[in-house]
């Protein structure tokens, strides 16, 4: 780092004429005489020039008296919402890692409304530099209490002085941030005397240089005079900063891990766009790639509306997914809608699957053509929606003797027991799927088997699922009278004894 | 090319990356968390930035920073998180920064529920932040539309330098349907106004403060002109069997899907029904509704909120035709059957005596 030299005259990073000012003299800043912001802006400009980073610098100015930082510093400028500069700076720095991002914030901004943003930017170790101007008051809005207002100090909202029993104590931001592991440099300086100002200049430059060197989060808190609101003349205000404020906010370096800090690894170089479909698992599904599957006209007029339901963990969602995947392979138009939210009452889970000859209108199934119920509560919940002639497959040894609507094609498939014998009760969903295929004929079992081969990567589970699927087909033949199997009664066509299914 | 069976919430991220999105900043919330999770998984693989923000307030301000740095950026959330983002929407619109926000709506008010609702309509379509600004709002009803409209959202955001919201009830993100994806696009060059930390962009300024009354008025007039332009050029909708319809149902998202089934069911009952499904909620397909009012006797709005969409339909109709409302709430999705009853009871005879207005 270059040695500190007193700069006489204007730094190149400080605009010569403040053309961006909307009112007032373009030769003068809008800061009050004796205001710390003016001094600090100058120190910033000097540091930027000394480090040779004017072109790379991006200043983020949130709301406060320094909101017009962009009128003075000839660098890239972003004005931000009150307190949010660390979040804005995070994204700028991560997006453009070569930029040097400086977040310049007041004490209301950083220590009140922006508390969450500063703590988390610091905790993530964002490689930014934060300049924190502590003038113990809200300047811009006319002198309300800041989180840093000293005990006993009057403000427009503490007309009798700050009373710790009512307003709490001033927040020591540096000490707070020093509880975090990630920051590499935390320092408090003042603008109360020439000597303090020289130290402040050094701290500001170091905090920026840390970023130039690729190190992590640096923050400099600057005790700063606000003569206007304090009701002091500039000299008295400076004296107050020098003598009084450090009693509450001790000056010094609270953290210096710059020697051991590990720079954040650079972003990996981006892949060629042509590689994206592969990276995103979309081979065959993006324009210009081949493969994939799509619904076709092979099943004209078909309209299978299936609800599968059971306890969470019984695999009804997977059952639905396999059905939809296989349906797509077989040329159906498909949709799968899982229950979430209010339908998940009492730990049950269900999904709606549609396999249609044409485009699926609504994925929501209100009038199923088939219900696959893996437990009793699901059976009871969905039975009222079943119309005469529709299919119900129930995971049990026997169909419940009472309370069933008339005219259903209902069969009991002891899926859990069958799956248990095969190796795991968790394959009960595939037993039920096999039974559904057998009862409806909506899909050739081979298509479903091929789908399972593709979807289930663990060979042991795959074998179990395939065995369960076949066992389910056999079970359906036992459970349903021959007239209920698809060879004689294809779902979708009007089935005996009631009217045909209504549209869902 | 074929299609892939894919969950809406995952498809949205993949579509965004194919469209050149390279920044995602998000905070988890059901039913949008899978979007943030997919982003966490894929952004780093394509050389993009993913940050899990400390809040939605931070997330939207990270979009502000990323957009200011000239990157296509995105976040996703739901009701409570979207409420927290309103400050950011206003700043983004004021500073004319492009970004895409996905809102997978859930039940409200307050913590409400995680089930699907459409009650963020007002805060997104009318604008929940301060100042005279609008969000451009797209309303997908299928996973394919989620893909297509996400890609469109990035283009519109850049074209209008404005936030674009992809607004859907949570069920659209939860469901799986086949979707085909566009070919990957190269990451667009940063726009000339962006701030990159380079000599060429050093004099750029991203800002929304204009204290001088005339300057601010000029700025807001510029925004206003931009929105008028969008109103001319961007309305999109899906019309279904409206040519000979005597009643037209209006709904978006999952409700719009149900309406399509209801239109068919109504026709089987001899009611000549049609569907107007807005794909853009702002700008709203006002002209199309007015055009339909020339031949349609009555309109029926079906929404998963207590009457938000209907206000735009009423504004479009300006009293020309009767409008009836059917709503479901709390995570319940209207069924085809109940919509059919609504059509039969409220709409089949409505507006029977009305003249077709000459000026329509
Ligand atoms: C969300 C929001 N709330 C309140 C304000 C009003 N406001 C502007 S500046 C400010 C306080 C600034 O104080 P500080 O950060 O200490 O900076 P100073 O003006 O003292 O330099 C407040 C409350 C705002 N702009 N935005
Ligand atoms: S009010 Fe205080 S902080 Fe603001 S410009 Fe004046 S002296 Fe500076």
Short précis:
Chain A is α/β, with parallel strands linked by helices and 504 residues long. Chain A has helices spanning 36-51, 85-95, 107-113, 115-124, 164-167, 173-177, 194-212, 227-230, 234-248, 276-279, 316-329, 376-382, 415-422, 428-440, 445-455, 459-479; strands at 57-61, 76-79, 100-106, 129-134, 137-138, 144-145, 185-190, 218-223, 252-256, 303-311, 333-338, 348-356, 370-373, 391-394, 409-412. Chain B is 40% helix and 19% strand.
What is the H-and-E element order of chain B? EHEHEHEHHEHEHEHEEHEEHEEHEHEH
Please tell me how large the radius of gyration of chain A is: 36 Å
CATH topology of the largest domain in chain B: Rossmann fold
CATH architecture of the largest domain in chain A: 3-Layer(aba) Sandwich
Count the strands of chain B?
15
The portion of residues assigned to helices of chain A is: 25-40%
What is the global morphology of chain B? globular
Ligand species: thiamine diphosphate, iron/sulfur cluster
Please identify the structural class of chain B as seen in this structure. Answer: alpha/beta
- CATH H-level name of the largest domain in chain B... which superfamily? Thiamin diphosphate (ThDP)-binding fold, Pyr/PP domains
Strand content of chain B: 15-25%
Strand and helix layout:
The complex is a heterodimer of chains A (504) and B (360).
Chain A: H1 36-51, E1 57-61, E2 76-79, H2 85-95, E3 100-106, H3 107-113, H4 115-124, E4 129-134, E5 137-138, E6 144-145, H5 164-167, H6 173-177, E7 185-190, H7 194-212, E8 218-223, H8 227-230, H9 234-248, E9 252-256, H10 276-279, E10 303-311, H11 316-329, E11 333-338, E12 348-356, E13 370-373, H12 376-382, E14 391-394, E15 409-412, H13 415-422, H14 428-440, H15 445-455, H16 459-479
Parallel strand pairs in A: 1-2, 1-3, 3-4, 4-8, 7-8, 10-13, 13-14, 14-15
Antiparallel strand pairs in A: 5-6, 7-9, 10-12, 11-12
Chain B: E1 4-7, H1 8-18, E2 23-26, H2 33-42, E3 49-52, H3 56-68, E4 73-77, H4 79-84, H5 86-94, E5 99-105, H6 121-127, E6 136-138, H7 143-160, E7 163-169, H8 170-174, E8 176-179, E9 205-206, H9 213-233, E10 237-240, E11 247-250, H10 253-268, E12 273-278, E13 280-282, H11 286-293, E14 298-303, H12 309-317, E15 323-327, H13 336-347
Parallel strand pairs in B: 2-3, 2-4, 4-5, 5-7, 6-7, 11-12, 11-14, 14-15
Antiparallel strand pairs in B: 1-8, 6-13, 10-12
Helix pairs in contact in B: 1-2, 1-7, 3-5, 10-13, 11-12
Thiamine diphosphate is lined by residues 63-66, 82, 106-109, 133, 135, 137-141, 146 of chain A.
């Amino acid at each position: 780092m270059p040695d500190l030299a007193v700069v006489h005259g204007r730094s190149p990073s400080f605009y010569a004429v403040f053309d961006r000012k909307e009112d007032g003299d373009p030769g003068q800043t809008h800061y009050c005489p004796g205001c710390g912001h003016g001094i600090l802006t100058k120190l910033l400009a000097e540091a930027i020039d000394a480090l040779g980073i004017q072109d790379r610098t991006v200043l983020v100015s949130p709301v406060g008296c320094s909101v017009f930082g962009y009128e003075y510093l000839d660098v890239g400028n972003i004005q931000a919402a009150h307190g949010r500069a660390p979040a804005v700076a995070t994204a700028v720095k991560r997006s453009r890692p070569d930029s040097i991002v400086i977040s310049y914030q007041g004490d209301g901004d950083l220590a009140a409304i922006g508390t969450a943003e500063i703590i988390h930017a610091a905790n993530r170790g964002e490689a930014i530099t934060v300049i924190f101007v502590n003038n113990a008051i809200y300047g811009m809005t006319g002198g309300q209490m800041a989180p840093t207002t000293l005990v006993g100090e009057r403000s427009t909202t503490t007309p009798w002085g700050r009373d710790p029993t009512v307003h709490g104590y001033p927040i020591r931001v540096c000490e707070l941030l020093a509880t975090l592991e990630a920051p590499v440099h935390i320092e408090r300086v003042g603008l109360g005397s020439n000597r303090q100002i020289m130290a402040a200049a050094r701290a500001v430059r170091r905090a920026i240089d840390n970023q130039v060197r690729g190190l992590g989060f640096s923050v400099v808190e600057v005790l700063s005079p606000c003569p206007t609101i304090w009701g002091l003349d500039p000299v008295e205000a400076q004296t107050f900063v020098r003598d009084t404020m450090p009693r509450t906010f001790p000056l010094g370096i609270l953290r210096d891990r710059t020697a051991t800090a590990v720079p954040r690894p650079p972003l990996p170089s981006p892949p060629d766009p042509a590689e994206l479909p592969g990276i995103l698992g979309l081979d065959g599904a993006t324009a210009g790639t081949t493969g994939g599957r799509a619904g076709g006209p092979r099943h004209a007029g078909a309209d299978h509306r299936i609800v599968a339901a059971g306890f969470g963990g019984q695999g009804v969602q997977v059952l639905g997914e396999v059905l939809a995947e296989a349906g797509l392979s077989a040329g159906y138009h498909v949709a799968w809608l899982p229950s979430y939210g209010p339908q998940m009452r009492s730990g049950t889970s269900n999904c709606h699957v549609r396999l249609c000859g044409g485009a699926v209108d609504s994925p929501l199934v209100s009038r199923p053509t088939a219900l696959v119920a893996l437990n009793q509560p699901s059976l009871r919940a969905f039975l009222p929606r079943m119309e005469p002639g529709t299919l119900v497959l129930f995971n049990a040894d026997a169909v419940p003797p009472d309370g069933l609507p008339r005219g259903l094609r209902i069969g009991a498939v002891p899926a859990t027991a069958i799956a248990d014998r095969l190796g795991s009760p968790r394959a009960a969903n595939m037993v039920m799927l096999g039974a559904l295929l057998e009862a409806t004929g909506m899909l050739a079992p081979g298509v479903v088997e091929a789908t399972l081969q593709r979807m289930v990567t663990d060979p042991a589970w795959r074998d179990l699922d395939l065995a369960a699927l076949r066992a389910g087909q056999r079970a359906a033949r036992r459970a349903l009278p021959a007239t209920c199997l698809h060879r004689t009664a294809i779902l979708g066509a009007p089935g005996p004894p009631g009217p045909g299914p209504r549209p869902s | 090319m074929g299609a892939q069976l894919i969950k809406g919430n995952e498809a949205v991220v993949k579509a965004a990356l194919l469209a050149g999105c390279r920044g995602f900043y998000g905070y988890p919330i059901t039913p949008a968390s899978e979007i943030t999770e997919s982003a966490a998984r894929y952004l780093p693989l394509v050389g993009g930035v993913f940050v899990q923000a400390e809040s939605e307030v931070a997330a939207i301000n990270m979009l502000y920073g990323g957009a200011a740095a000239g990157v296509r950026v995105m976040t996703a959330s739901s009701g409570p998180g979207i409420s927290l983002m309103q400050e950011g929407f206003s700043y983004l619109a004021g500073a004319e920064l492009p970004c895409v926000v996905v809102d997978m709506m859930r039940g409200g008010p307050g913590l409400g529920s995680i089930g699907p609702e459409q009650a963020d309509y007002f805060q997104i379509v009318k604008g929940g932040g301060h100042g005279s600004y609008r969000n451009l709002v797209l309303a997908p009803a299928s996973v394919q539309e989620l893909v297509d409209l996400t890609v469109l959202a990035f283009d519109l955001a850049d074209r209008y330098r404005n936030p674009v919201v992809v607004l859907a009830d949570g069920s659209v993100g939860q469901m799986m349907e086949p979707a085909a994806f566009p070919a990957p696009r190269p990451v667009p060059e940063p726009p000339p106004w962006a701030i990159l930390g380079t000599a060429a962009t050093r004099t750029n300024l991203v800002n929304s403060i204009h204290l001088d009354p005339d300057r601010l008025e000029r700025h807001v007039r510029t925004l206003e002109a931009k929105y008028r332009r969008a109103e001319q050029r961007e309305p999109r909708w899906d019309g279904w069997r409206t040519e000979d319809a005597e009643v037209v149902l209006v709904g978006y998202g999952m409700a719009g899907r149900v309406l399509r089934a209801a239109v068919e069911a109504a026709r089987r009952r001899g009611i000549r029904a049609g569907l107007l499904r807005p794909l853009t909620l702002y700008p709203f397909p006002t002209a199309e509704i007015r055009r339909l009012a020339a031949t349609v006797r009555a309109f029926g709005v079906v929404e998963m909120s207590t009457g938000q969409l209907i206000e735009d339909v009423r504004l479009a109709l300006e009293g020309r035709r009767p409008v009836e409302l059917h709503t479901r709430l709390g995570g319940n999705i209207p069924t085809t059957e109940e919509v059919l009853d609504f059509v039969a009871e409220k709409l089949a005879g409505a507006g029977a005596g009305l003249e077709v207005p000459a000026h329509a």
